[in-house]
Amino acid sequence: MRSQTPGTNVVLLSLSLLALVVWLGLDTVSLAANRIVPGTGYRIDEILGWGGALATCLPWLALVGIAWRPTRPRLVLALALVVLMLSALPAWLALSAETLVDIPGARLGIGAGIWVVLFLLLLALIELRTRLVLGRLLGWGLLLPPVASAGFCLARWLEPLALWQEYRSRSDQFLGAVGEHLLLVGVAVGTSLALGVGLALAMRRWPGVQKVGFGVLNFLQTIPSIALFGLLLAPLAWLSANVDWLSALGVSGIGWAPALLALVGYSLLPMVRNTFVALEAVDPGVVDAARGMGMSRGQVFRQVRLPLALPVILEGVRITTVQAIGLTAVAALIGAGGLGTFIFQGLGQAAMDLVLLGALPILVLALLVDALLGALTDILRPGGAE
Amino acid sequence: MTDPRRWLVPMVWLALLLAATLGMGQLEGLFRWLESDSRQVIYARADFLTLLGRHLLVVSVAAALAILIGVGAAIAATRPWGRDFLPLVSQLASIGQTFPPVAVLALAVPVLGFGTLPIIVALLLYGLLPIVRNTLAGLAGIEAGVMEAARGMGMSRGQILRQVELPLAAPVILAGIRTSVTINIATAAIGATVGASNLGDPIISGIVNGNTAYVVQGALLIGLLAISVDSLFSRLPMSGAR
Amino acid sequence: MIDLIHVSKRFGAAAAVNDISLSIAEGELCVLVGTSGCGKSTTLRMINRLIEHSEGEIHIDGQQIRRFREEALRRRMGYAIQSTGLFPHWTVARNIGLVPRLLKWPAAQVQARVEELMELLGLSMEQFAGKYPHQLSGGQAQRVGVARALAADPDILLMDEPFGALDPITRESLQDELRELQARLHKTIVFVTHDMDEALRLADHLVVMHQGRIVQQGRPLELLREPADDFVESLLGGEDRGLKEAALLPVSQRMRPLSPRLLARERIGQHASLREALSLMLWRHAERLTVVDDADMPVGELSLRRLVGERSDD
User: Fold this and answer.
1) Which CATH superfamily is domain A171-380 in?
2) What is the predicted ipTM?
3) Of the partner residues B91, B110, B219, the one whose CB lies closest to the CB of residue A126
4) Is the Cα dihedral A137, A139, A143, A144 positive or negative?
């Protein structure tokens, strides 16, 4: 049996020690003369000298110390320290830019060291948030200072940052791509929600539909997205060549039409499954009681079954939306537009920062949607958030 | 359980996959009709069997490592000495689920470069999540009374893990591996854009060159592969002997 | 056989079990009874070290339990719990053979032991050996649980509300079987329950716990007659106490030798309880009963006055 006094926080300890090693050992930034040549990596001691490098280790050592003998006030201090360090990362990039960049047009790349440290700091944030039992909202609020710091540094000092340069050279295109991405996701999820609920209701009424429906949808889900996009290409190309009004609408083998079709196809399964399960899973005792009190079938459905099922249905919407955000990125391959365009362009040109310009927003979008819909589900759950 | 007919459906799919891989050239007439403008209608930069082999290799290496690490990590996080890591590991596994596989793949390239290795690493990282999550869920889902009885009967920790926990969690763990592998077959295909040569090749090349026949060939084989593997998994004892 | 000497268990600052001392003799059925959260289960689980005690000493046959390896200690005690804890992926036979296999008995011996136990617990081999736990009724599953606990022929049996989830009829029949089993096998049994009727029915030695302490222990009749405080009294059922006591006393203890008078028409077995005798009198409007032995031969008579009369000294 472990003793009841708070012992060493092994998790925080290992994270801090690992981060310390990475911080000193891996390249924090890289510098390239232009977009084509590969950059040269710089470790922290190569920028600050060993004295300065060791000085930047102090906050890590403080974290190690706190992890060794954690008490609640000390963990709060550790949390503050982690948020501070997260906010300091952009400032560190700014400092590197000031120190290293001497020729105009040189590009500053974010090194593996920074990415790994960022990841470890976020892990530490999650760990501390869990230990201190902080709410969901506060957890997200903790990310505000780092985001603000990043924004401020980008505006003031980070002109040479390669990712930022990629953005500025196509800022209109970027916003357009975000719009396209969201539009595709929105239309696909909206359509599949309407179809999905209808289908789930039909399945509840006719068991035959249930069997066939789940069979088809499960089958569809196993086909890889890129294959489904590919397989839709031929029939849609044929349709647009032979049906005038379809081609007038802009339907073709390439573009938004096959993308949307495939997205709706994929989105249907999680949507139907969750709606169906949600409606089925309502406690039969409750439904029985409602009937017993003399509620009509319609009343039972509208006033009992649906409200109780709503959180689970929303859960389906959340899963579907997150999945659709990722799939839409693949749809860029068949010319559907969206943020995936940057990824595949970047991969084609071996321009890694362009890849990041596509991939990072997709990641952020997925996380944001997940968090927002998750919070909404919590609110709608009877009895409020847990 | 030993009824050979239960393997019939996966075998049919596998046979279709093999037939399509080896006999794609025989369908030239069909593809000629589909893509009448192009001179060449059968993808020829590499033969389909090689592409299929590479695809399978990448996916199975990644899956093997992901199973090893994922199940191992989940077991470690549920032992008394690793329990400190449990909240972090389970939160990470659930947050990680929201990362789109394409984004993970795209992020692996700047760090690891082009080629097969970044794909394996990206597939491994992404494939870990469902396995970790399901292993954790499977272990947590074991009835408390069963664990209590196992300890009370004097089973050692190792015996409990091998004879009680793993067999009881197996269906859930297997479901996680199935999800992981299915996603990875699809993601590996997108890997063709970062320089891995596999079944994604014909699709990418077809899209770039506007050759629908190539696209259909690649899509057909990936689709058949995914369905074969999924149907093999569906014959494993997912629901256990409950 | 089992001695707890000033044993305490603390979780953080709270004491779940506070300085209890308890001695359980060999072959005795000791029942720990109390409301939920009183520390009775914790006490039981400290005996097989599923929970380590914080203070005091626990001895088995005069040896400190900390001297044994945890697993070795547990393998020499049977353990049965309310949720049965049968392994859902194993057949009934495999479940029962668990501890013998852990102890590396030869396969044939394990098989023989499983058959013997299934016989003992009234589970037919053909019908149940190959079944899985989810195919059993609650009572059957609990029998398998008890068989599993008895498998390696342990001297000590620990039972944590094993019959708590069963319907009253099944529970009673299992209680009777446990008593019979105990009479035959002479195990030392520690039994935890919150059901006072069950406790009174089973116990040789009754231990009432409250808020981590033992408030009273002794033979069931002693507790009934002289409850130490209001808590024990209310637990014993307040105004029902007379009936509870009557349920513990056999008819043979109050009957008189046969008198020359006519035999009363209503008959009752000599092993029946006074409570049953009283019930029969009320039901049949009879003031006298003829007491018969197992062969249905009259051996004495019991009048209402005798039944409610002065306590016999025992």
Assistant:
1) MetI-like (1.10.3720.10)
2) 0.80
3) B91
4) positive
